[in-house]
Amino acid sequence: MLTVYAAKWCPHCTKTIEYLKKNKLEFEYIEIENQPETIIQKIIQVNGGDDWVVPTLEFNGKWRPGKLYNEKELASDLKKLGLK
Predict the structure, then answer these.
(1) Running DSSP on this structure, what letter comes out for residue 25?
(2) In terms of DSSP bridges, do strands 27-31 and 56-59 run parallel, antiparallel, or are they unpaired?
(3) Contact at 8 Å (CB) between 41 and 47?
């Protein structure tokens, strides 16, 4: 299942989640600010090692670092992850 690491205050997270729902893609939402340090460190690592960036996506061990919302880019990245 797709995992979405996000923050409720993040507009790019909100748009990504809306896109996933609209396209009937199942996902698990993880509120990044409520996670243990081990999860935070993994998200930091996936995003280049400086800080965590959301929304960060994971599907079957493949990661998509946090990015600004862009529908076409998100659709392409989801396909690369093996979704759709």
Answers:
(1) -
(2) unpaired
(3) no
Classify residue 7 by burial, with Cβ atoms within 10 Å: 0-12, 13-18, 19+: middle
- List of long-range contacts for 16-19, beta carbons under 8 Å, 24+ apart: 16/55, 16/57, 16/69, 16/74, 17/55, 19/69, 19/71, 19/74
Secondary structure class of 34 (helix, strand, coil) = helix
Whole-model pTM over 0.85: yes
Number of folded domains that form the chain: 1
Say if CB 10 and CB 55 are below 8 A apart. Answer: yes
pLDDT tens digits for range 18-45: 999 999 999 999 999 999 999 999 999 9
Q: How far apart are CA 51 and CA 14, in angstroms?
A: 20
Host domain of residue 25:
2-81
